[in-house]
Design goal:
By secondary structure, the protein is of the alpha+beta class. It has helices at about 15-25, 60-75; strands at about 1-10, 35-40, 50-55, 90-95. The protein has a 4-stranded antiparallel β-sheet.
């Protein structure tokens, strides 16, 4: 299994709106070939920081989705959202044990 972990930090007090956007997300990625699940995590000690963990059957499935559907998946981003500069990061993992 392949896991992509993205993180970003909200700069302008819109954490409640971002949280609500994820709760009501349109689920575009759910039907992507090879997609397994998405988890959205918010640290209790920093509610302005968001972690997205997407689980995929394989890396190629993730790359295909990213290349073809990333823009539509971000359509629900709250208007006016600003991020802390350079806070957006993505890391890739292989699941070794569950």
């Amino acid at each position: 299994m392949f896991i992509a972990v993205s993180t970003f930090t909200i700069a302008n007090d819109m954490a409640p709106e971002v949280r609500e956007a994820f709760i009501n997300r349109p689920h575009f990625v759910d039907s992507a070939q090879g997609f397994v699940k998405l988890q959205v995590l918010i640290p209790q000690d920093n509610p302005d920081q968001i972690y997205l963990m997407t689980y995929w059957e394989d890396e190629d499935s993730y790359k295909t989705w990213y290349k073809n559907h990333m823009k539509e998946s971000h359509a629900g981003i709250p208007k006016g959202l600003k991020l802390v500069p350079n806070s957006t990061k993505i890391r890739f993992f292989d699941l070794v044990s569950d």
